[in-house]
């Protein structure tokens, strides 16, 4: 997508602090971290949101690639064995501000028992 900020990051047109990259997945540090570790994990291919991905085979493949990469990303950011939270905001009313599916990987401090 030409004007999608995360597609631009995937293409290297906008700088990012990369944590992990493979053929299908990119992980980079969030610009406004809410915890000592706050990484965004994105499919390289553009999907507007999680529901769109669940609806077709290529989207499901892209989700599988993300979950396959997750343990390595967790290891790279130093959270292995420490626990983390993986969050997806799906849709504007859930607070999704960038319409390219992404998962927030958050950790590095006690997160508490409640999500909010
Ligand atoms: P969401 O509100 O779930 O759509 O999350 C979007 C996230 O993208 C926010 O946490 C922003 O801080 C983050 N963000 C926006 N632009 C950039 C960027 N250029 N590099 C890294 N993170 C960004
Ligand atoms: Zn995109």
How many strands, what sense, and barrel or not for the largest sheet?
5 strands, antiparallel
Which consecutive residue ranges, at least 5 long each, have pLDDT under 50? none
Averaged pLDDT, please?
A: 97
Compute the number of structural domains: 1
Helix and strand content put the structural class at alpha+beta
Helix/strand order = HEEEHHEE
Sequence of strands across the biggest β-sheet: 1-2-3-5-4
Q: Care to count the β-strands?
A: 5
CATH superfamily: HIT-like
Tally of alpha and pi helices: 3
Name the ligand types: adenosine monophosphate, zinc ion
The percent range for strand residues is: 15-25%
Observed structural traits:
binds adenosine monophosphate, HIT family, subunit A, binds zinc ion, 3 helices, single chain, 116 residues, globular
